[in-house]
Amino acid sequence: MSVEKAENNMDKDKLYRNIDVCEEVITYIDTNMEDVSKRNEQIELLIQLKKLTDSTYEELRLIGNQGLLLPNIGAAFGNISYSIERIINHKDKFVQIFKYDIHESLERMKMLTNCQYNIINSQENMLKERQRVENELKKLHNAPRKEYKYKVSIMVPAYNQLEYTKKTIESIYKYTDFSHEDVELITMNNGSSDGTEEYFESLPNEKKFSFKFNTLPLHISSQFYEGKYFVVVSNDVLVTPGWLELLWECLESADDIGMVVPTCNADSISELQGIEIPYANRLGNEEEVEDFAYRYNSHDCSRWEERSLLMPFVSMVRSDLWSLGIEDPCFIKGQFIDDNNSTFLRRTGWRMILAKNVFLHHYGSITFNKTVRFSYRDALEEMREVYALKWGVDPWNSRGELRARYYVPDILSNKKIRILWVEPRFGVCYTQVKNKFKLLGAEEIESVAVVLDEQYIPDADGLFDEVLRLGDIAVLGGRDKEGFDFIGFGEYIDKIIIHNSMDILDILRKLIKKDGCMVIPIMNYYNLICVCGFLREILESSFKNQGKYIDMDKFMDELEKKFEGNNSDFLSVYDGSINIDEEEGKMIKNIFASGRGDVGMREILRIFMWWMIVKA
What we know:
The protein is α/β, with parallel strands linked by helices and 616 residues long. It has three domains: 12-118, Four Helix Bundle (Hemerythrin (Met), subunit A), CATH 1.20.120; 144-391, Spore Coat Polysaccharide Biosynthesis Protein SpsA, Chain A; 416-615, Rossmann fold. 44% of the residues lie in helices and 18% in strands. The strands form three sheets. It has an eight-stranded mixed β-sheet with strand order 3-2-1-4-8-6-9-7, sandwiched between helices. It has a seven-stranded mixed β-sheet with strand order 13-12-11-14-15-17-16, sandwiched between helices. Strands 5-10 form a two-stranded antiparallel sheet. The termini are far apart. Pfam families: Glycos_transf_2. This is Glycosyltransferase, GT2 family.
């Protein structure tokens, strides 16, 4: 068997031919792997193959800007070259490197090339692929469970930060029970240059991957993890006593749970997933983390929060679910890949749980340095466009969340709660309220969504018991005699009313139960943050004032008249409870320090929004 030398001028057909050659060589060696007498012949074949992968990598590097995934396809060829080089220098590791590294690189280049030329080449093909994965995820609900060799496969990917990686691995070995041989550890060096590869090689686990070039996906092909559940632990995390058993307990509690994520320190996670900690977030705090986690971690299932969106610094997922391909390689810079994965799960009826009874420490805010922050902003916008192209909606403006945690009364009048939610979108605020009622002691929650923008019906279908369109509100008012304990909104009321009649509120008010309430979020466009944004948009010549279509003073008067005579009240939300960036903070400080404006204006500037609480 021989390997032809690659020609110049890379094109699609040539790329496929080169992949076929790689696969042919690898398959041939696979069939003779046990025959040690052929090892020299196999190494000679790999040396020939390296000439092909070297030249392909170089050609793709030069034309990488001609296709979204071409740089990562090239990196896969480069990683095969690197693996062959390691085999030449470490012949005793032939089987390990060939079995894991080379096979994984081949799978990646095949997957990425198919995606480049057969999926993202047209909007129609992208939609078909998205629907294919959604259909597979839906079918999995009724599929028989597979048998797995292990209970859990734990994966630790690392790109430099060796000091933190060592702490992560040490904590895993300390707080994970490997004695029953039902848990496997998989390590992946993803392009590190700081000794990570050598450190991983020193560990006793069998499955080790090592790549020269850092590429996405971070995870490995499903053929390599053999656990019923697949856990990914970031290399800047300290796991804690009981962590794996507690996550396992949550995921095993219901057949429709697809992903479980623990909580961590609030300064290293978004989406209100973290908690405040009584110690400093610094390297060397292992004893403090351990002491805190011993007291904190428990089997308290009341602290399981259902979420519509999760940012997993650590996650436990069903392996059969993950193997269906929800991780999209088009998110080449990583941002919004979690939003994409959450969207797949949300729309196909797989619940996501934030297990707040399990604490792990995350150093994230430390390892995320200033250099990364600047490139991170650019990558955010680029990957935001990728998400919008795939799903047809903007990932930030579609979350159905507000800049303050949704107001819920602390009194529970019934064990069975009925919630009506208007325009939930991705359902972030709705799940906040649902979790709060569960924490208050609700044993059964029935939910109905009213969707104004039909693009979000698939999201609502995965979250609510019943989904109605805007036109159904009047019908609901006529047929629903039981009423609702809580009525909420996934958008500020002016943005809902702007397209519809104020009469919607009349219908909704009549649906409130005797001891229930409707909580209306109202944006204050005179807030200093909005004023600063307004001024900034004028300077950038891109004026898009969200409140320009209505007179807010008049609108507030109408709201007060609408509920005049009813038991209603306003709650103000101040900027002190909201994160603002450094530039906005300086503007607030300067204006207040100057003493300009009367007390009333200063107060208005500080109020970000109001909750209008309407009772029956």
